[in-house]
């Protein structure tokens, strides 16, 4: 009985911390596109994370067991980390898993949560629109440079900033649309649990 009460209490705490997840998700073709893109970006971010982990293990093993150190592992680790963040940022925004301070979210009703989501999403969209052209210019600079040890054209590395802000722009628009629809409808999402793939 006490385990059941502890589980219920834990679920209540988790639900209170995930207030924005109660805003209904976008359906239809656009919602399906967002969900498919979620899965693709998340899969690529996981691949980058696994690659990063293996590269760090190789770096440690080479320092311990080989007479030489592999200099390219540090560079590859940095690039994989950059791409992991760039690929995952939009998914994190869409699933409302970003770090935030929740001082008043629990007090908001369905319309308040929807309005808050619209406001935050529009700020994100505005910031992404402001930064995206400069990120593109920054990526173009990399066309004339190569990385020091791997000799990768830096445009591929600098392009991660375009990917990051493009994903934030797309998912910010999706979240704003979800919030607007919830604001108009005013109905809270059903108690179905959201899948985390």
TrEMBL record:
A Pfam family annotated for this UniProt entry: DctQ
Membrane topology: Multi-pass membrane protein
Xref: InterPro entries: DctQ (IPR055348), TRAP_DctQ (IPR007387)
Compartments where located: Cell inner membrane
Keywords of this entry: Cell inner membrane, Cell membrane, Membrane, Transmembrane, Transmembrane helix, Transport
Chain segments annotated as transmembrane: 40-61, 76-93, 114-136, 156-184
Domain Tripartite ATP-independent periplasmic transporters DctQ component intervals: 53-173
Superkingdom: Bacteria
Signal peptide: none
Family label: Belongs to the TRAP transporter small permease family.
Subunit structure: The complex comprises the extracytoplasmic solute receptor protein and the two transmembrane proteins.
Task performed by this protein: Part of the tripartite ATP-independent periplasmic (TRAP) transport system.
Protein's name in the database: TRAP transporter small permease protein
